[in-house]
Write a structure and sequence with these properties.
single chain, 385 residues, alpha/beta, Rossmann fold
Length: 385
């Protein structure tokens, strides 16, 4: 018994003088197009998006943009004259619409990598954040009550490794969280460079289905006018712009990508520069604005994030700041590294002090001049009694 093979039977047999196959004939192509048009059902047309206006820019999501399977792998498959994937089909409409190419490049490259690794067409997967990489994020979210139903969270996205990982991770847990919440991203263009990577940031956010907002803030001019250190000025204006935008767009929370190393470095920096035992908190309510600032990555070490960014094949953007690598924070970071060479437990001890400061045996709070004068007076008054 010969193995069944569809190409031995009609409609795959050549018909006609030119050897044309039935399903690949011009008549059948036009019939298929007509059937597809009549079979389409528009379930929702929010804000009258369809039909697309001339000049519209279209973003294509998902591996099916390039890993397109025609007819499945069974009896629904037939011989055709050509196959076009979603990208190729829409490119034929280039006179009417344009394609968001940066996002397409992301999917195209991912599919190529999967094919090279042995995946076959139709059997590729949508790239996701591996679940094991998210355990510390889930811990922070649950332990510090970061999520409530209906939250609208604006992610501070600089384009660096930390904020890119935060965006990917939050977009992933959004799929599985027991409460619904919205996400979007915001970037401050500090105008350090004329080449602000707007298209790259939009493509990155678009891949995760997130809207991206950005705004120009002339940090350099502000620093020269204010006279503070450039890092203080930059941080101040970035925070102000981010919080203002969050309020204007109706977000109630802002997520920042500070990690565990950042917290420990801030703790030591405050001890050395201001004599204070303090660092930033996992959750910070801002009473004046009603916003809440979240730091979901606080349980991740920086080295872990570097490794996860590599695993996820994220492409952090170059930091255009002229002071990058020459800051007080960088000095503290290097100081901790030097101390660790002599005492490997230094970092862990700093982290413990940061978390357990209220339980430490610290000196009493310093008295005011009046309190001290009263104590002196009361002490010496005992002699006369």
């Amino acid at each position: 018994m010969n193995k069944w093979s569809r190409f031995k039977f009609t409609p795959n047999l050549p018909l006609g003088a030119n050897g044309e196959r039935v399903t690949g004939s011009k008549a059948h192509i036009e019939l298929s197009k007509e059937a597809a048009k009549e079979g389409m059902v528009l379930l929702k047309n929010e804000n009258n998006v369809l039909p697309l206006a001339a000049g519209s820019k279209v973003a294509l999501f998902g591996k099916g943009t390039f890993d397109y399977v025609k007819g499945g792998g069974g009896s629904g498959d037939v011989t055709v004259a050509y196959i076009r994937n979603l990208y190729e089909g829409l490119k034929l409409q280039k006179e009417k619409i344009s394609i968001f190419e940066e996002l397409c490049d992301y999917y195209r490259n991912d599919i190529k990598k999967q094919y090279a690794a042995g995946a076959v067409p139709g059997m590729t997967i949508e790239p996701d954040v591996p679940a094991e990489l998210l355990s510390k994020l889930w811990r922070a979210v649950i332990e510090f009550d970061m999520l409530q139903a209906g939250d609208r969270i604006l992610i501070g996205l600089s384009g660096g490794k930390d904020s890119m990982f935060l965006t990917a991770a939050l977009a992933e847990i959004q799929k599985y969280a027991p409460v619904p919440f919205d996400l979007a991203c915001y970037t401050v263009d500090a105008m350090f460079s004329p080449a602000f990577p707007k298209a790259e940031l939009e493509a990155f956010c678009g891949y995760y289905g997130l809207k991206h907002y950005s705004e120009k803030v002339d940090v350099n001019s502000a620093w020269q006018n204010k006279g503070n250190t450039p890092c203080f000025t930059c941080a101040y204006f970035r925070r102000a712009a981010t919080n203002r935008t969050a309020l204007e767009l109706g977000f109630n929370k802002v997520a920042l990508a500070h990690h565990h190393d950042d917290a420990v470095e801030t703790f030591l920096m405050n001890v050395l520069t201001s004599g204070q035992l303090r660092t930033f908190l996992p959750v910070t309510p801002l009473s004046r604005t009603g916003l809440t600032v979240l730091r979901p990555l606080l349980y991740y070490r920086e080295a872990e994030i570097i490794d996860m960014v590599r695993q996820l094949d994220l492409q952090p953007l170059r930091n255009p700041c002229p002071y990058d690598g020459h800051t007080k924070r960088q000095d503290i970071k290097e100081h901790i590294r030097e101390l660790e060479k002599r005492s490997p437990e230094v970092y862990d001890h700093l982290a413990a002090a940061m978390r357990n400061a209220p339980n430490q045996e610290l000196w009493p709070e310093q008295l005011s001049q009046k309190q001290l004068a009263d104590k002196f007076h009361n002490f010496w008054r005992q002699k006369s009694n």
